[in-house]
Design goal:
Length: 185
């Protein structure tokens, strides 16, 4: 093989290996996703690009307040926050989250809630029994998810509980725009 031909072949090999590695990383480990719509405001904005860790729930379970990406329809992915875990009863009263009757703070909403008037509500009152399915507690393998922008979010209040089988992964890092680069809280 001539020197020029060998150089081209070496470049082709290196490029092929890089493409294969990238394919496997994207397929099994990490994937980019773009936020579409206002449902996660103020935490995430429409047009933000995120890196989703696909392995996070292969080696661990979703935790309360994780920001997850799940397959909503065959062609649509949604980004929401895990609020209710299996075995729990969830209820909202006067903008307070109750898990099994105990109030739980939602730190990511504190700023938004502090700017409401007395007669305004950010999360309209509801209980687990009010959402599709009418469950008393969340069954194993299912989660209650809500958008941070509670007045403009298609989430478990409309879709029902979300099966962990539909989870793509945990949104962990914002990569675009540059002024919003960082960990997803």
């Amino acid at each position: 093989m001539s020197g020029k031909r060998k150089e081209w072949f070496d470049w082709f090999k290196a490029l092929s290996i890089a493409v294969i590695i990238t394919f496997f990383i994207r397929l099994f480990l990490f994937s980019p996703v773009m936020v579409e719509g206002p449902s996660m405001l103020p935490t995430l904005q429409s047009g933000d690009y995120l890196i989703v860790n696909k392995m996070s729930y292969t080696i661990g379970d979703p935790e309360r307040f994780d920001t997850i990406v799940f397959q909503a329809t065959e062609s649509k992915k949604y980004i929401k926050r895990v609020i209710g875990l299996p075995g729990e009863h969830i209820e909202y009263k006067n903008d307070v989250l109750y898990v099994n009757g105990e109030p739980i703070l939602e730190p990511f909403l504190e700023d938004k809630l502090s700017h409401l008037n007395e007669n305004q509500s950010y999360t309209f009152d509801f209980a687990l029994e009010d959402i599709p399915g009418g469950y008393k507690t969340i069954p194993d393998g299912y989660y209650l998810v809500l958008g941070d922008n509670r007045n403009n979010s298609t989430d478990s209040r409309r879709l029902g509980l979300i099966s962990e089988e539909r989870f793509i992964g945990k949104a962990q890092f914002a990569i675009w725009p540059f002024n919003r680069i960082g960990l997803v809280s």
